[in-house]
Amino acid sequence: MLDIIEPLFPDHQGKAMFKSPKILVVDDNQQNLELLEAYLSAADYYVIKASNGEEALEKVAQDPPNLILLDLIMPKLDGFEVCQRLKRDESTRLIPIVMTTTLQEMEDRIKGIEAGADDYLTKPINKRELIARVRSLLRVKHLNDQLERTERVISSLALAVEARDPYTEGHCERMADFSYRLAREIGLPSEEQGVIKDAGILHDIGKIGVPDAVLLKPGSLTPEEFTIMKEHPVIGERICRPLRTARLLLPMIRHHHERMDGMGYPDGLKGEEIPIRARIITVADVYDALTTTRPYRPEIPRKRAIQMLREEAGRQLDPHLVEAFIDIIP
Fold first, then answer.
1. Residue 322: CATH number of its domain
2. What's the gap between Cα 116 and its chain centre?
3. 104-143 confidence digits (pLDDT tens)
């Protein structure tokens, strides 16, 4: 019995129906294709086949499989190139790829791992080993898919929170863009740039826990109301903790209202105690707040906003990041 199945749709009687995980088998040898199809079909997997690398990429583009068994040595595109292309693509990078090969050299295996392969099987392939490896990787894929769905739901929730306040329309997208460009400007690795962009979307998600009477108040907040508002970074951290990238996201969500002089919240961090990723989010957040209309004031012209950023350098904002940000804003 399969331990991983995908929901499909209810039948005419309202009962749930399911489809088996789909596996793409790629090999230029017809006998190998038929043998692997027989092994997998007997285990109740749905099999599609491709006889070369180009055909494999076409079939993945048409309907992505749950897992790929990929021969290394093929005409047109070899397995290394196919694997690299799929792992570079954001939409296919999480599909498990098992390299199948007769090659025994360690260099070939290392090359496959560097291309992004998730596992190796040596020909002739043992049926029991094949099914065990496939089942294990599909279980991991299933968990990753669940986490991705969680991330999409939380990102949608962040945009829904933004929609509560007509004055902050587009704030999350601008924050993501500003933060990403600032991270790139100061030379952070590309992986960190992507995480910072995600944090730009999610940084204010904790405002879902702030009452409308406080969040949408047209005037200044009372001390009691401000205390409620200051809870949103902590609430946001708690909401995002289940995310796959939570380890990197959480400090940015929690600390984007800290100040260089230690007068921020929620933890009163000071200077270098504040993670640099959170300092990046803060600079972008302050600039966007200044240059957009809010219930308590009109938008501030760009030149004046830049002047105010510089005035806050060393107090609220990181001076180095302020100057780097000014270089990249339109």
1. 1.10.3210.10
2. 18
3. 666 766 777 778 888 888 888 899 999 998 998 898 888 7
Which residue's structure tokens are 């897992």?
67
Residue that is written with structure tokens 């992986």 in the block: 191
Does residue 192 sit in the same domain as residue 321? Answer: yes
Long-range (24+ apart) CB contacts under 8 A made by 273-276 are 274/318, 275/251, 276/318, 276/321
- Positive or negative, the Cα torsion across 288, 293, 296, 300? positive
Half-sphere exposure of 96 (CA within 13 A, CB side): 24
Alpha helices in the chain, H assignment, sequence order: 30-42, 53-62, 79-88, 106-115, 127-163, 171-185, 190-202, 212-215, 223-229, 232-240, 246-255, 276-290, 302-312, 319-328
CA distance linking residue 17 with residue 3, whole number of Å = 15
User: Residue 308: is it exposed, middle or buried by C-beta count within 10 angstroms (0-12/13-18/19+)?
Assistant: middle
Structure tokens belonging to residue 255: 């600390």
DSSP string, 167-181: GGTTHHHHHHHHHHH
Range of the domain at 301: 164-328
Q: What is the pTM assigned to this prediction?
A: 0.59
Residues 12 and 242: their CA atoms lie apart, in Å, by: 36
pLDDT digits (tens, 9 = 90+) for 262-278: 999 999 999 999 999 99
Closest CA to 202 of 246, 148, 167, 264: 246
3-state class (DSSP) for residue 94: coil
